[in-house]
C-alpha cells in the first residue's frame, strides 16, 4: 500500500456516502492515504458529518463539486439511481469513472454519463467494512495498466482484489464473493437453530459456530497448497461422526444446491443488466 500512498498524487471522490464508501474511505485512511485528497458527496448531511468527523475528509452535498475535485470518481449509488445521478453531472475526459453498482455494464455507464474516458467496474463485498473484503475489478479496453493497478491498490485497502479479463466475469464475482457472505450466514443460522434444538443456549450455539467458521476460513488461508477437498478429507475420519454428516450433505446434493444458488445470482445480475 505504501506504493499507492507515495505515487498516487490524485484526488478521490465518492458519490454516495453509504456503507461501502465508508468502508473504502476507512481503509484508505488506515493505510495512510491523505484525508485532504478524499471528498464524499451525499444528498443529506448526517452521513457526511460523520465521515468528516471520523476521517477529516472533505464533504459536500453537491455531486458536481465532488466530480470537479477528483481524478478518480467512485460511483457508490444504487443501480436504479445511477442513470439519474450520472445524467446530472458533467465529466471531463481526464477522469477515471469507477462503478461499484451491480448489473450496470460499461457501455450503459458510458451512455448514462456521456463519459468518454476510462470506466472501471468494481464488485466488492460487505466484509470490506472490517478490512476483509474480496473485490473483483473489470477495466474497459481504454483503461491503462496504471489506472487498473491503482484500483487494485485502493480496493486492497479493504481486503483482497483480483482483476477479471471479461466483463461477464463480474457476474461470477458476484456469485462467488459479492453474495456469498449471505450464504455463509444462512448456513450459520441453520446450524445455530439446530444447536438450540439440541438443548444449548443461543449464546453457546453462536460462539461454537462462529469460531468454527473463523477457524476453518483461517485454516484455508494458511494452507494454500491444500485443495479444499483435501482439507475436508483431513477432517473426515472414515466411519466417524464427520463422515456421517458429510455423507448426509452429499446425499442431499449440496453441490447441486450451491451450484443452483450461485447460478441464480448470476442470472439475476444478467437480468439487472437489461433493466438499466
From TrEMBL:
Enzyme class: oxidoreductase
Top-level taxon of the source organism: Bacteria
Location of the Pyrroline-5-carboxylate reductase catalytic N-terminal domain: 12-103
Subcellular location(s) of the protein: Cytoplasm
Pfam families: F420_oxidored, P5CR_dimer
Pathway: Amino-acid biosynthesis; L-proline biosynthesis; L-proline from L-glutamate 5-semialdehyde: step 1/1
EC number: 1.5.1.2
GO molecular function, one term: pyrroline-5-carboxylate reductase activity
Domain Pyrroline-5-carboxylate reductase dimerisation residues, every copy: 167-272
Catalyzed reactions: L-proline + NAD(+) = (S)-1-pyrroline-5-carboxylate + NADH + 2 H(+); L-proline + NADP(+) = (S)-1-pyrroline-5-carboxylate + NADPH + 2 H(+)
Cited InterPro entries: 6-PGluconate_DH-like_C_sf, NAD(P)-bd_dom_sf, P5C_Rdtase_cat_N, P5CR-like_CS, P5CR_dimer, Pyrroline-COOH_reductase
Keywords in alphabetical order: Amino-acid biosynthesis, Cytoplasm, NADP, Oxidoreductase, Proline biosynthesis
Keyword ATP-binding: no
Function: Catalyzes the reduction of 1-pyrroline-5-carboxylate (PCA) to L-proline.
Protein name: Pyrroline-5-carboxylate reductase
Gene name of this polypeptide: proC
Amino acid at each position: 500500500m505504501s506504493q499507492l500512498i507515495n505515487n498516487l498524487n490524485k484526488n478521490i471522490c465518492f458519490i454516495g456516502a453509504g456503507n461501502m464508501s465508508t468502508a473504502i474511505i476507512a481503509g484508505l485512511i488506515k493505510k495512510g492515504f491523505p484525508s485532504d485528497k478524499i471528498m464524499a458527496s451525499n444528498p443529506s448531511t448526517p452521513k457526511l458529518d460523520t465521515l468528516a468527523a471520523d476521517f477529516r475528509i472533505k464533504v459536500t452535498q453537491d455531486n458536481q463539486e465532488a466530480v470537479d475535485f477528483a481524478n478518480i470518481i467512485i460511483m457508490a449509488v444504487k443501480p436504479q439511481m445511477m442513470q439519474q445521478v450520472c445524467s446530472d453531472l458533467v465529466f471531463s475526459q481526464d477522469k477515471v469513472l469507477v462503478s461499484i453498482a451491480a448489473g450496470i455494464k460499461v457501455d450503459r455507464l458510458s451512455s448514462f454519463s456521456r463519459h468518454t474516458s476510462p470506466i472501471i467496474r468494481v464488485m466488492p463485498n460487505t466484509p470490506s467494512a472490517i478490512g476483509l473484503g474480496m473485490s473483483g475489478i473489470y477495466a474497459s479496453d481504454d483503461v491503462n495498466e496504471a489506472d487498473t493497478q491503482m484500483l487494485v491498490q485502493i480496493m486492497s485497502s479493504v481486503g483482497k482484489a483480483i482483476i477479471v479479463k471479461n466483463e461477464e466475469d463480474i457476474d461470477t464475482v458476484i456469485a462467488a464473493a459479492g453474495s456469498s457472505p449471505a450464504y455463509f450466514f444462512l448456513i450459520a443460522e441453520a446450524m445455530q437453530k439446530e444447536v438450540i434444538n439440541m438443548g444449548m443456549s443461543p449464546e453457546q450455539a453462536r460462539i461454537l459456530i462462529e469460531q468454527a467458521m473463523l477457524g476453518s476460513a483461517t485454516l484455508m488461508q494458511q494452507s494454500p497448497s491444500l485443495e479444499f477437498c483435501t482439507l475436508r478429507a483431513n477432517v473426515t475420519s472414515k466411519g466417524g461422526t464427520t463422515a456421517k454428516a458429510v455423507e448426509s450433505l452429499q446425499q442431499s446434493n449440496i453441490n447441486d444446491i450451491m451450484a443452483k444458488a450461485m447460478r441464480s445470482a448470476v442470472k439475476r445480475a444478467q437480468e439487472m443488466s437489461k433493466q438499466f
